[in-house]
Amino acid sequence: IQLVESGGGLVQPGGSLRLSCAASGFTFSTYDMNWVRQAPGKGREWVSYISGGSRTNYASSVKGRFTISRDNAKNNLYLQMNDLKPEDTAVYYCETAGTRGQGTQVTVSS
Hints:
7-stranded mixed β-sheet; 4-stranded antiparallel β-sheet; 53% strand; mainly beta; 0% helix
């Protein structure tokens, strides 16, 4: 399993970013996927889940602001993040079957 995240960056509060995760080495469409994040000095925090059939779930801290989606034809996972807040600052990882990528840094600051 290989997972490569991209799309992070520096954004002002209230801004938006779209994260991507390119998956390879497994049958992507049959795997449930998660986005997790880790802020400096804090533990891993689950953000969002999507099943192989695109059923979704969100942490209460991001519900209504973040949208998880997947393109099974392209083996890609996405996280659309709107109305970003400073507390969303973290390294974001896609994760499945106990494996995660190298992460992508999201910094929300004015």
